[in-house]
Amino acid sequence: MTEGTPPNARSRLVAAAIESFAAKGFHGTTTRDIAAAAGMSPAAVYVHHKSKEELLYLISKEGHERTLRLVEEGITSSADPVRQLRAVMYAFAAHHAEGHTGARIVNYELAALNAEHHAEIAKYRRAIEQRMRDVVTAGVDAGVFQTSNPRMTALALLSLGIDVARWYRDEGDWSPGDIADHYCELALRIVGATTD
């Protein structure tokens, strides 16, 4: 860090990158756009980050780490698969609504990551998918969920939650909680839950 640089310059640049990527997409955004959104000089981007791609990686890594934590917290909240699914789906849908701008970038700009970063993010995504599949499989094994393909069902549930970020807007009719409540109901129907 150079003398006179605010201690939060790196986080300001990350926030500015989220804003810029959301407005123009990764490929349509320049480092000058990011610097301007952060109220800094274009050179500041390279003082704090190696590249525009590194900013995308940091945004994606933080988003996936947070999502994995939310899913794991939902699972550990109960031993009952129905309650686990409710907790996971509620947190997952609410998270994608509340942080819809960042979630769109995290989920829809993955192809812009370099091979090393993409491989790391893919591990997080596989872990999230595995945790959801474990919940669905546990429900099937307990006789409370009815699905012939737990893996595909888990992917469908994750896709449902991720897609919230694509269409949700803060000024809309539904709060993140409204969406999360309804998505819990949808999730239980998708798995063919036989109990409340």
Describe the fold and architecture:
The chain has 196 residues and is mainly α. The chain is built from nine helices and no strands. α1 (9-24) packs across α6 (100-108).
Topology:
Layout lengths: L8 H16 L6 H8 L3 H7 L3 H25 L4 H18 L1 H9 L6 H27 L8 H18 L8 H15 L6
Helix pairs in contact: 1-2, 1-4, 1-6, 2-3, 4-5, 4-6, 4-7, 5-6, 5-7, 5-8, 5-9, 6-8, 7-8
Q: Per the principal axes of the C-alpha atoms, what is the gross shape?
A: elongated
Span between termini = 55 Å
Q: Helicity level, as a percent range?
A: over 70%
The average pLDDT is 91
| H/E element sequence | HHHHHHHHH
- Helix/strand/pairing class, anyone? mainly alpha
Spans of 5+ residues with little confidence (pLDDT < 50)?
1-7
Describe what is shown at a glance.
This protein is mostly helical and about 200 residues long.
Characteristics:
196 residues; mainly alpha; elongated
